[in-house]
Design a protein that fits this description.
Layout: E1 9-19, E2 24-29, H1 34-39, E3 42-47, E4 50-63, E5 68-73, H2 79-83, E6 89-93, E7 113-115, E8 121-131, E9 134-141, E10 144-150, E11 155-159, E12 164-167, H3 171-174
Parallel strand pairs: 7-12
Antiparallel strand pairs: 1-2, 1-6, 2-5, 3-4, 3-6, 4-5, 7-8, 8-9, 9-10, 11-12
Length: 177
């Protein structure tokens, strides 16, 4: 087996329990690597202090959440073989890591006042959640919380100076009880 110097890689997570009977495994990873994993073809597993390449079989890395994926490696065909690697650290080559934007538009929305198309004040954005690439805003609205799906295409006004975000929001989303 060919190995790669650890200095050329970054630890992204670790392998967890097998899934099913054909050698699929759960991979738990830091959420900053989600985008990098979406395009990864090879992961490196630390075995006896060395990084060994594990090739992902035919795009069989399925993101289950912002921190968990289901992965199928070539040559791991059984649940028993997959169990051998439970708990092992997983790495990506640094050159294959897609940097996240620290101050991206969606990350900087906390504290913004949210308005709908009719300029009705819906409340203050207090939290952002990422559900497998789907951003959801949590808005404090008159002491209650409402969840609003976020999509850049729905933005009508984005005022960083006054911390105002105006979006097209389906009326049905605001009337859910």
């Amino acid at each position: 087996m060919e190995t790669i110097p650890i200095i050329e890689c970054k630890k992204i997570g670790y392998l967890r329990k097998p899934h099913g009977v054909f050698g699929k495994m759960y991979l738990f990873f830091e959420d900053e690597f989600e985008e990098s994993l979406e395009v990864a073809r090879t992961l490196f597993v630390k075995i006896d202090g060395l990084l060994v390449p594990f090739f992902i079989e035919n795009d069989e890395l399925i993101l289950k959440s912002a921190k968990q994926a289901l992965v199928k490696f070539k040559w791991i065909e059984t649940n028993e073989k997959a169990r051998e690697y439970v708990g092992y650290e997983v790495y990506l080559k640094k050159e294959n890591i897609i940097p996240i934007k620290k101050d991206s538009e969606s990350n900087s929305l906390i504290g913004f006042q949210l308005y709908n198309s009719e300029k009705i004040d819906l409340g203050i954005i207090i939290e952002l959640d990422d559900f497998s690439g789907n951003i959801v805003l949590t808005v404090d609205s008159n002491g209650g919380k409402i969840l609003i799906p976020y999509n850049e295409n729905l933005i009508e006004k984005y005022d960083t100076e006054n911390k105002i975000l105006q979006m097209k929001i389906s009326e049905g989303l605001l009337n859910l009880e």
